[in-house]
Amino acid sequence: MLSQSRGKHPNRTALIRDWEKFRDFVKVYGDKTQTEMAQLWDEEISQRTISQALRKIGNTRKKKHTGIANGMKPNRQPS
User: Fold this and answer.
1) Distance, C-alpha 44 to centroid of its chain
2) Domain definitions of the chain by residue range
3) HEC states along the chain?
4) Phi/psi at 20 (5° precision)
């Protein structure tokens, strides 16, 4: 039998412990990809950890709407 408990990986990357710091980090770098955010974090951390942390703080990765109007004109009824 293994001495480690189930579900724990010995080479696990660092976890985010300072959630206020992470929220501030997201405000600054929220437009980056999760991989880029992982590289910018001050500790070695994975993209998956960034993804889980974003979900935990309720941050979604939804696209932002742009100010570009639709170039199509509405259909007109024949007179």
Assistant:
1) 16
2) 19-56
3) CCCCCCCCCCCCCCCCCCHHHHHHHHHHHCCCCHHHHHHHCCCCCCHHHHHHHHHHCCCCCCCCCCCCCCCCCCCCCCC
4) -65, -40
Mean pLDDT (the chain) is 79
Q: What's at 46, amino acid-wise?
A: S
pTM listed for this prediction: 0.61
Task: Output the pLDDT for position 66.
Answer: 58
Planar angle of CA 41, 16, 65, nearest 5 degrees: 65
| Rounded Cα distance, 43 and 56, in Å | 19
In angstroms, rounded to a whole number, what is the distance separating the alpha carbons of residues 40 and 58?
20
Low-confidence ranges of the chain (pLDDT < 50): 1
Closest by alpha carbon to 12, among 42, 44, 37? Answer: 44
